[in-house]
Each structure stands twice: as C-alpha cells, then as structure tokens.
Amino acid sequence: MKKQLMVTWLVAIICLLTAKSAQASTLYKGWSYAIDSFNDSTQGTPLRVGGTDYEIYGSAFKQTDHNIFLAINANTPIGGVASGAQDGYTRWGDILFNFSGQNLNTANANGSLWGVRFDGQNESGVASTGVFKDVVAKSVAHLNNNGFGSLGRHNQVVQNYGGTPTIGDLSAFDPYFDQSKQVENVIASGTKVGDIKLLSLTELSNLGLDFAHFGLPGSQTIGLSFDRSLFPDEGSFLYHLAVECDNDIIAQGGNLERVPEPSAILGLTFVGLIGGSRLRKRPHVNQ
Ligand SMILES: [Ca+2]
Ligand SMILES: [Ca+2]
Ligand SMILES: [Ca+2]
Description:
The chain has helices at 2-21, 104-109, 151-160, 201-206, 262-286; strands at residues 26-28, 31-35, 42-43, 48-49, 56-63, 67-74, 81-82, 89-90, 95-98, 113-117, 130-138, 166-167, 170-171, 186-194, 197-199, 220-227, 235-242, 249-256. By secondary structure, the protein is α+β, with helices and mostly antiparallel strands. The protein has one domain (27-258). A hairpin with a 2-residue loop joins strand 1 and strand 2 (31-35). The chain is globular and about 65 Å long. One calcium ion binds at residues 36-37, 40-41, 55-56, 248. One calcium ion (CA) binds at residues 85, 87, 89-91, 123, 144, 244.
C-alpha cells in the first residue's frame, strides 16, 4: 500500500511539473500574465505601426474555486474607436478559448471553441455578452478596414516598419494560427452558458492584478469575471483575443485546475482513515 501511494504521488508530481513547464505565462500575485509586443499594432493611412489605438500590451488570467478572471491591458476601450470600419467603429473581438489541443482551424471546424464576449456593441454573431460553448468563430477583420488580408502579411508589414510582431505567449508565426488568412476574432455561433461581470480597476487591484509590475503602458485596463462552473472542469487551454480589425492579437496558454468538491475531500479522508487503520492493524496480523 505504501509503495502504491508513493507511485501515485510521483505520478502526480511529474504531471504537475509537466503542466507547469508547458506554460509560457508568468505567475505574479496569483495572476498568470502573457506579455505581447509593445510595437506590433497597425493603424491608419499613412500607416502607423506600434503604440496605436489598437495596441495590445498584455493579458492576465486567474482561477479561484468560484470564479475565473480575465484582464487585458491595451489602448482600445470597450466600445472601440471611431475608424474607417463599415459600422464606423473598430471594437474588441471576443476571447476565443481552445481546450482541444488542436490548431485553430481544426478546433473551429469542429465547433469546439469556447467564447467570452465582453464588448456588447461588437460584430459578434451572438446577441448578448457572456460565456458561450460549442463556438464556431469567424473573422470580421475585412469589415473593419483590414487591408492586409492575412496574418502573414500583417506580420510582414509590422516587421518592414521596424516592429516585432508577437502573439502573447506565442510567436507571431506559430502554426496554431493559419498565416494565409485573417484570424477568426469573434463568435459566429455558440450556446450561451452564463453571464460575465465587468470589473472596476479597484476590484481588479483588490484581486492582486498588477500590469504596472510588467511596465505595461496601455491606456485601458479591462477586466471581467464569470462563474468557475461555466467552464470545463479541468484541462489546458489556449485563448486568443484581437481587435475587430486583427491589427493586433494576443494569446495566452494556461491550465484549468479541477476544483475539489466537498464530497471528494470527505471521500479521500475516509480512504485515508481506512488505509491508516489497516496499516495500524498489520503488526497484529503478522504476529
Ligand atoms: Ca501588441
Ligand atoms: Ca466594427
Ligand atoms: Ca500581438
């Protein structure tokens, strides 16, 4: 029994180490941070690169027993900025979570993405803000004045203008994204599972969020939360978020940890008690 227990613990420790090493994000005061390039957004004619209204600097993720928290540091406010877009504004896309381990094209074709819509005026295909499952995503970049036509072309132009394109935890050229097309940035369709709550700067600060620690200069800090139970019980994920025009994109990887249920804790205690009593009895059996 002791040997079995030791093997179980070793496996658990190895799994934990493997899971941690797979994350490129930085953990600080309970939040996991992804930092994006400070100079890989584009805007306007003549073209400006870096530090524009669409610049995304970083994002952060936090899980507790009851909530999931997400935060973004960028220059685009909720509600967007007036632009040459067909609807007159370039707003935020939706946050698109992938738990499948597949690249974005495959997961999207399977309708297995999850989405979080927080900008109620954007060009998402769903009617309200909230958390959505069974999501198929689409790109609205072409409707929002993106003349680049593809992620690869945008990356190239940023480089030509002296910028360094990245996608948060990922390289700008990571095969997760299809370089030959504009990246899907809003929910096309999905099933709503619950609501989100937008958080104030004070609430975020009280939760330990600290973008300043990483020197992020974005004029906007956006934060939201939703109930932990809305998301899958466990598993590693990658999410990405772009402005509607795809003129900057960030991605962050992480790991959802299963929340121990009170009954499971009681069960473990019970097993432990039985195990303990057997161990104590063993010397008597041997005698
Ligand atoms: Ca950026
Ligand atoms: Ca728009
Ligand atoms: Ca970027």
